[in-house]
Amino acid sequence: MSQPLCRAKEIYNLPLMDLLFRAQTVHRANFDPNLVQCSKLLSIKTGGCPEDCAYCSQSARNGAELSASKLMEVQRVLAEAKRAKEAGATRYCMGAAWRSPKERDMPAVLAMIRGVKALGMETCMTLGMLDMDQALRLKDAGLDYYNHNIDTSERYYSEIITTRSFQDRLDTLDRVQAAGINVCAGGIIGMGETAEDRISMLETLAGMEVPPQSVPINMLMPMAGTPLADAPKLDPIEMVRTIATARILMPKSYVRLSAGRSGMSDELQAMCFFAGANSIFVGDTLLTAENPGEDKDAQLFARLGLRAEVLTGPAEGCAA
Ligand code: SAM
Ligand code: DTB
Ligand code: SF4
Asked: Does the structure show a pLDDT above 60 at 319?
């Protein structure tokens, strides 16, 4: 586009039609606007997490009624991944409710990565904070993406999480990048933050030396028993603005319309795709929360004329 790139705040606050037009123009210059990348999530270790993230059903410090599970067996994970591949997912994302991985769990985690790669899918993991050695071992096993969200602005972070800092998050992201793994990093909106916080979060992501290849934008799913269980519902147009601004600031990244789709109409999701979202989680569960199932998404895609992206080459490297 010939317009000069203005500051994130000016972009975010454009009249909605101008914002959407601009985002869609950037989107079309970089992607096929009718293609959507589909990822499938699996919680490989659920609940009992020592961190105190106010939104999360898996924190042992929150009152959510969720029993803690042990790390899943490798063969079960691979059987689930195979099913997801058959249902059309190209990336398999495995999440564990840990502050950081323990040494005793590393062999199983590495075996999961190797096994999912062998199925011909892209691999993604989200295991909490990593040290450099762990990041290198994940890379060596073939990990394509590491998900580690900054969640909100630096200013608002301590209102949501006190057991680690915003800087801890950035440090892990640096290590993931230094190990040569693609970064998946985004955040959650609807946690009582201001528009300034949403803008600041996007500025932090876009200002990284290499912006994340994948940017999940989650709408808070209020989970019973958590401090945010009764958070007031955010105006959904703020979701559209957040996605459009992410698209303009990070033109080559996949922007994922992430948690919260089960509470959204087809029309709202269509607006999010028009704003530049080009990735979703498929399947009827996320980690612990609900997601529209296969049938609903098949109907949505048919209604909108969208197609699921397929992997063309080997699952090696960056798909972005
Ligand atoms: N324990 C790891 C960590 O925190 O990095 C990985 C799992 S954690 C559940 C992954 C991300 O899911 C969080 O960073 C957050 O952005 C998102 N998330 C968790 N609970 C959510 C909720 N109730 N609504 C929306 N997004 C949520
Ligand atoms: C991300 O940004 N969203 C996903 C994934 N990365 C790990 C997780 C969403 C979790 C929603 C709440 C739940 O399922 O408990
Ligand atoms: Fe633990 Fe991750 Fe949930 Fe925070 S978001 S409580 S680190 S599982």
From this structure: no
Structure tokens at 257: 């319309």
Q: In a mutational test of the pocket of ligand 3, which residue from 42, 43, 46, 51 has the highest number of ligand atoms less than 8 Å from its CB?
A: 51
Task: Please report which helix (H) or strand (E) contains residue 236, including its range.
Answer: helix 236-249
Q: Please list the helix, strand and coil fractions of the chain in percent, rounded to the nearest 5, in that order.
A: 40, 15, 45
Q: Pick the range with the lowest mean pLDDT from 70-74, 85-89, 145-149, 211-215.
A: 85-89
Query: Are the beta carbons of 193 and 156 closer than 8 angstroms?
Result: yes
Ligand 3 centroid, distance to 50 Cα (angstroms): 8
Hunting for tokens 């919260």 — which residue is that? 260
The alpha carbon of residue 283 and the mean position of all alpha carbons in its chain are separated, in whole angstroms, by 15
Q: What is the pLDDT of residue 188?
A: 98
Within a 10 A sphere around the Cβ of 2, how many other Cβ atoms?
3
Give me the pLDDT at residue 64, please. Answer: 78
The share of the chain scoring above pLDDT 90, in percent, equals 91
Q: Which whole number is the average pLDDT over 199-209?
A: 97
CA of 167 to the centre of ligand 3 (A): 16
286 contacts 91 by C-beta, under 8 angstroms: no
Rounded to two decimals, the pTM is 0.95
Q: Which residues of 254-267 are buried (b: 16+ CB within 10 A; e: fewer)?
A: bbbbbbbbbebeee
Burial class from Cβ neighbours inside 10 Å (0-12, 13-18, 19+) for residue 94 reads buried
Q: How many angstroms separate the CA atoms of 240 and 237, rounded?
A: 5
- Amino acid in the structure at residue 282: V
DSSP state of 35: E
Of 220, 286, 291, the one to substitute when testing ligand 2's pocket (max ligand atoms within 8 A of C-beta) is 286
Q: How far apart are the first and last CA of the chain?
A: 20
Q: Tokens standing for 171?
A: 């440090």
